[in-house]
Design a protein that fits this description.
five-stranded mixed beta barrel; 9 helices; 37% helix
Amino acid sequence: MRFDIAQWNRDMTTIPTDGLTIKYENHSPIELADLTTSLQAVARRYARFAAQNGVTFEDENASALYVREIRPGSVIVDLINWGEAHKGTLTAAVVAGGAAATQVNALTTFAKNLRDSLNWLKGSGDKPEDVSTSELKDISKILEPIAKDPGANLHINAAEGSHVVVSVNYNSLEANAIQNRADKIIEERAEPAQKSFRRVLMYWWQANKGAESTSDKVVIDDISEKPLKVVFEDDEIKSKMLSGAGNPFNESFLVDVHLLTVRGRPRAYKVTKLHEVMDSDETGED
């Protein structure tokens, strides 16, 4: 299926007022699970956005999105929020108080925020404030139907009345690049998992006498044969190891440690207690 810009223009002239329209312009059939996952991710992002920005009604579903219409032409989904879906039943007091208008503004402001997040991950915009890891995961899910379909496009449009506030397009290559950037940021943010070991023998691989040094590395054979970076819960522990009468590189140290890992891979040790200093004769080292 080739992208027909004339058809797209005809489709988009019928964007309902006060709504968010998402068009999945697919070349291959869209897997139902991918489509529903994408739309669910949009709903989650909007719910968080609405809660963070104080867009509330007394109704518990005030932060929900609703499908107003699914139109022909690839997959075109028109979404509205609680205020638009229930505007016919809102009381005069609520309307007079501007709550309905706030709901409409929230949807277009959300669309701007989503656009800014996508553009930042694409490398063509500044980072929006506080893009959480869960939001990054949702962005990847939103793009999944397009990312896995070469030549496909995702179009996002938002309108207030007859005024189109947001109108952006991302092709399959851009969707893949955005997903890869999101995955990289998520990996960088990953909190180290921690495992504790008591009374294990450690020896220095390289050391700097400064209290804090990123070059310090040690080996604990019982855990890993590879030298790993080391940090200390108390600077006095490191001082005792390096300021003794003997050569610290000819000694071993009986310690308690936490093994810090990222994505299951050992990255560093955190020494929490020094029990004993042993020279090479005591430990049987050459």
